[in-house]
């Protein structure tokens, strides 16, 4: 496991270090490790949304570290610093992200911060895929933002047309022409490996997201026996993770009790939260909703 050390954050006295995570299949992933100045009271992995680089979560990870948590952010294979060769050559899929990359990130977190409670903050796909992790039961609790089934059938008409265009026209045409999906051309994050985009398209056209792939793309999973506490945050102005799609995703966890909280931008004096801006500094006054949720599951409480 190699590492490149960056200067400590002088303002907050935390350490930020770039590391390499090695998955079980030997695929290397680029990651960043945030260490508090005192021994960590718990440790958090941030599961990224589809096609979003770890740098997007830097301010949020810094905040969590300031609260006393060790934090790891990472790029899934085929994304950002975890592109090996070209995106066109990547064999990554949503399934490998859940089965290989997320478990490897958690194992790395356990090595760097041993013998503390472990938590997951899942953003969109980062929360949808946790039931594919073989070590999911090592988590004490998780908190998702914008994680839902993404089902097209539950989207409002104005956004549905855009979603259908991207999912059912742009993805297959881009994969055909370029060998991958040029998501960056339409403001949908980093370029996507073709298998990732293809599964994304398939699952969002069904119900329960990953459940659409049970028995085909997904041969084994742990959704049925996950019972750890969970909190699901969503924004009222999120066209993708609307309340219907969030409950659709929660239904994939039949034995889990979930706390759901819908955030109205006007209640927090922000113009927009949507699917992405929860992690923006403009919404940093919302971040204690995550840290305080995890605090209740620490040993001293």
Could you characterize what this model shows?
There is one protein chain. The protein has a single domain (3-150, 219-295), classed as 3-Layer(aba) Sandwich (Rossmann fold). With 301 residues, it is of the alpha/beta class. Strand 10 (230-235), helix 6 (243-250) and strand 11 form a beta-alpha-beta unit. The radius of gyration is 18 Å and the shape is globular. Helix content is 27%, strand content 19%.
In short:
The chain is an alpha/beta fold and 301 residues long. The protein has seven helices and eleven strands.
Helix residue percentage: 25-40%
Q: How large, in whole angstroms, is the Cα Rg?
A: 18 Å
Number of helices: 7
Q: What's the structural domain tally?
A: 1
Count the E strands: 11
The percentage of residues in β strands lies in: 15-25%
Q: H/E element string?
A: EEEEHEHEHEHEEHEHEH
Q: Give the CA-CA distance, first to last residue.
A: 34 Å
CATH class: Alpha Beta
According to CATH, the homologous superfamily is: Alpha/Beta hydrolase fold, catalytic domain
Strands of the widest sheet, in order across it, are 1-2-3-5-4-6-7-10-11
Ranges where pLDDT stays below 50 over 5 or more residues in a row are 1-10
Average per-residue pLDDT, rounded, comes to 94
Assembly of the depicted chains? single chain
- Computed structural class: alpha/beta
Q: Which second-level CATH architecture applies? A: 3-Layer(aba) Sandwich
Taking the sheet with the most strands, its summary is:
9 strands, mixed
CATH-assigned fold name = Rossmann fold
């Amino acid at each position: 496991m190699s590492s490149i050390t960056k200067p400590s954050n002088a303002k907050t006295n935390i350490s930020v270090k770039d590391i390499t995570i090695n998955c079980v299949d030997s695929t290397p992933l680029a990651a960043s490790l945030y260490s508090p100045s005192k021994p960590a009271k718990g440790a958090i992995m941030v599961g990224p949304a589809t096609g979003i680089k770890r740098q997007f979560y830097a301010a949020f990870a810094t905040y969590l570290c300031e609260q006393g948590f060790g934090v790891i952010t990472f790029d899934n294979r085929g994304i950002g610093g975890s592109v090996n060769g070209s995106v066109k050559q990547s064999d990554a899929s949503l399934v490998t992200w859940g089965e290989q990359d997320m478990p490897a990130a958690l194992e790395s977190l356990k090595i760097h911060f041993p013998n503390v409670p472990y938590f997951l903050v899942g953003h969109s796909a980062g929360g949808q895929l946790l039931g594919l992790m073989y070590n999911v039961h090592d988590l004490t609790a998780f908190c998702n933002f914008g994680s839902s089934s993404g089902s097209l059938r539950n989207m409002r008409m104005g956004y549905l047309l855009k979603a259908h265009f991207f999912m059912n026209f742009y993805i297959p045409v881009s994969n055909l022409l370029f060998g991958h999906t040029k998501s960056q051309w339409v403001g949908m994050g980093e370029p996507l490996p073709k298998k990732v985009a293809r599964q994304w398209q398939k699952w969002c056209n069904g119900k329960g997201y990953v459940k659409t792939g049970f028995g085909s793309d997904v041969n084994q999973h742990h959704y049925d026996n996950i019972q750890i506490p969970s909190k699901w945050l969503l924004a009222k102005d999120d066209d993708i993770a609307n309340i219907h799609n969030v409950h659709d995703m929660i239904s994939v966890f039949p034995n889990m009790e979930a706390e759901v909280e819908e955030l109205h931008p006007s209640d927090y004096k922000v113009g927009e939260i949507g699917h992405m801006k929860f992690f923006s500094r403009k919404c940093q006054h919302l971040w204690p909703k995550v840290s305080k949720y995890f605090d209740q599951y620490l040993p001293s409480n």
